[in-house]
Write a structure and sequence with these properties.
Layout: E1 2-10, E2 23-24, E3 29-33, E4 40-44, E5 57-63, H1 70-84, E6 99-106, E7 109-117, H2 120-124, E8 128-131, E9 137-139, E10 143-150, H3 156-160, E11 165-170, E12 187-188, H4 191-197, H5 207-233, H6 242-245, E13 249-252, H7 269-293, H8 298-324, H9 347-351, H10 354-363, H11 371-387, E14 391-393, E15 398-401, H12 403-420, E16 430-432, H13 438-458, E17 469-475, H14 483-500, E18 504-510, H15 514-517, E19 525-527, H16 546-551, H17 563-577, H18 585-596, H19 601-615, H20 620-636
Helix pairs in contact: 5-12, 5-13, 7-8, 8-11, 11-12, 13-14, 18-19
């Protein structure tokens, strides 16, 4: 299915300005549908350049003022693409109440589809498709979609291709909408969906905090994966993230696991007492080590803190998984689960310090694993931790590592967890990017999530194997970007996504950026306004100067300077022009100071002329003319 056109006739209870407007998504054609007659108008755009963006890429930008419904329109596209593909497992926004139509290809034919209200008794007997694990029932649409084949003179290449499509939706904003079902028929990398997807590990009492920490950690992992992939496929000149990500990543080795002081679950009190006693001994040994290091080199201190903090984290995760968290004491075959063996350390063991205590603890574990292999993998990771950090932040207790080392940490984490099989999403490390600006984080979020969707989902998930057209729906993708990054945004997006996956793509991007519009043919710009006269008046957007775009009545009203400056300049202009207003000397001096800081030269020169007239001072031109007249008079004598 390839969507060429859609129109929303009616949205019950909403005042959005996206109703009764024609949305054409293929610049070669203009379709229009009349609500009353259902007549379809059709026109070919002779001047439109097909495959202009290369590699079977199509692009539309949806522009308009805030509050008109651009974000809602993207979500509707996510919904309608699923429905036209005859898919049902899509998050049920209120779109089931909307009355809409679409023109699209399917099975080598062109179709007109329309949602039509069913009779009252049909609504009362809706078909339940399934109920998910949270007892959220998903029903079939309130509207039945009627479909009929139509014929127009369009490119047969569209009809000849067997098109299997889906969509990928990105939004950098939190709307705190709970995603009720797993949307298996499209890909969602929005903040809301990924946040709800983050599992609550219940490492702390406040479950929201736990989910937030997990969401942030998964975000960093996606970003590291994006950088690792980008380093492998892009030559250095095209690595657009290299300017800000190679300063390193902060790594927190301290954990967030609670101290098991609440009611135990399927655990003996003797085991709890053993863990708590060992924890106290461990902390005493840790303090002793720190006391010993006082007066030693800073590097020695940081070395031991890194090693011992990591050992502590391993112990917490082991105990949490094998003694405290498991619910059943037996497995599915009714065999008793292996558990950590409680045994005594000798006085000599304690005197040998933390490293010895840890080694003995690991090698004497009785949890059905290869103890020697586990210890070896832990030591490999420890060697990376204590030898490759760039610096240690004593105040916030984190280490800075190069990106390459952090990639090794993630691999080591997988190796260790492969043996101990932790329940849930407990982490050995927590990551963050130090000193990144809001714009830099926005850049990483956008490209890492697009990479995640294209590489981790489309390339790997079996259910998307037959997809050969991907709609990439991006809500305000360049939010927070410096103007230079806005200018480069589309070029980099096309370059990188083509490297990740050569699948045919159709980008639909909401934006306020004039730089994006200057990269598009005007037929690919979908403009939304409050009135019927809502389109650009300029002939073409492609290659247009951004000042020309901003000056268009669609984009900005009342010039394209700030409203505060415009009103201030209009105020002094009125004072200088009106002969009935007689400003005193102090006011004229204040006006002169304002004129001196105006950046627009023509406007500034005009106000200077008016000010001189108001002061009764002759202008330079008037003085020149008087001097010329005096010269003529003297020559005449």
């Amino acid at each position: 299915m390839e969507l060429l056109y859609f129109k929303v006739f009616e949205i019950p209870g909403k005042q959005l300005k996206i109703c009764n407007k024609d949305f054409n998504l293929d610049g070669r054609y203009n379709f229009s549908v009349d609500l009353k007659t259902k007549q379809i108008s059709f026109q070919i755009n002779e001047n439109y350049i097909n495959n202009f963006y290369e590699n079977d890429t199509k692009i539309n930008s949806i522009v308009g003022k805030n509050g008109l419904g651009k974000t809602t329109l993207l979500k509707f596209l996510q919904y309608i693409i699923c429905k036209l593909n005859d898919k049902h497992k899509v998050y049920e926004y209120p779109f089931v109440w909307w009355h809409w139509c679409a023109i699209h290809t399917k099975d080598d034919k062109l179709y007109y589809s329309e949602s039509n209200p069913e009779k009252k008794e049909r609504k009362q007997n809706r078909v339940k498709l399934f109920t998910n694990e949270n007892d959220f029932a998903l029903f079939d649409d309130l509207f039945n979609i009627e479909r009929k084949q139509i014929e127009f003179d369009i490119d047969k290449g569209i009809l000849e291709a067997k098109t299997k499509s889906t969509s990928l939706y990105y939004s950098p904003f939190f709307e705190f909408e709970e995603t009720k079902i797993d949307p298996i028929d499209y890909i969602d990398v929005s903040n809301d969906y990924l946040f709800n997807e983050s599992r609550q590990t219940k490492e702390v009492d406040e479950q929201t905090l736990s989910q937030t920490i997990n969401f942030r950690r998964e975000e960093i992992k996606r970003q590291i994966s994006f950088i690792e992939f980008g380093d492998n496929i892009l030559d250095e000149s095209h690595r657009f993230y290299k300017e800000f990500i190679h300063q390193g990543i902060s790594v927190f080795l301290n954990g967030k696991i609670k101290k098991f002081d609440t009611q135990q679950r399927y655990i003996d009190f003797d085991d709890v007492e053993f863990y708590e006693e060992f924890d106290k001994i461990y902390m005493r040994a840790l303090r002793s080590t720190r006391d010993y290091l006082k007066g030693k080199t800073v590097r020695d201190y940081e070395f031991f803190i890194a090693r011992d903090s990591f050992y502590k984290r391993i112990l917490e995760i082991l105990y949490y998984n094998f003694e405290y968290r498991p619910e059943p004491k037996t497995d599915e075959k009714n065999n008793y689960r292996p558990k950590i063996q409680t045994y005594n350390f000798t006085k000599e063991d304690y005197e040998k310090g933390i490293s010895h205590l840890f080694e003995k603890f690991i090698l004497n574990l009785n949890i059905g694993i290869d103890n020697n292999e586990l210890y070896k993998r832990i030591q490999v990771c420890v060697n990376e931790i204590i030898s490759k950090f760039k610096r240690y932040d004593l105040n916030d207790d984190f280490y800075i590592y190069n990106v390459e080392v952090v990639k090794d940490f993630l691999r080591s984490e997988r190796d260790i967890f492969e043996l101990i099989s932790p329940k849930g999403e407990l982490a050995l490390f927590n990551f963050d990017w130090p000193n990144l600006s809001t714009g830099e984080k926005a850049y990483l979020n956008l490209f890492s999530r697009i990479h995640y969707g294209l590489f981790e989902k489309i390339n790997i998930k079996e259910k998307f194997n037959e997809v050969n057209l991907l709609y990439i729906l991006i809500d305000e993708g360049s939010t927070g970007f410096h103007p230079q990054w806005q200018k480069e945004f589309l070029k980099r997006l096309i370059l990188y996504t083509n490297q990740i996956n050569p699948i045919k793509k159709h980008f639909i991007i909401t934006s306020h950026s004039p730089y994006l519009l200057s990269d598009l043919q005007i037929e690919d710009v979908v403009s939304i306004g409050e009135s019927d006269d809502y389109r650009f008046t300029i002939k073409n957007t492609f290659g247009a100067n951004i000042h020309e775009l901003l000056a268009d009545k669609f984009y900005l009203e009342n010039t394209f300077m700030g409203d505060f400056a415009r009103e201030k300049i209009e105020e002094i202009g009125k004072e200088l022009i009106n002969e009935d207003i007689k400003p005193n000397k102090e006011r004229l001096d204040e006006i002169e100071k304002i004129i001196n800081i105006i950046g627009e030269p023509i406007l500034k020169e005009r106000l200077e002329f008016l000010l001189s007239e108001k002061r009764g001072v002759k202008t330079k031109d008037e003085i020149i003319l008087e001097l010329k007249d005096e010269i003529k008079r003297l020559k005449g004598n």
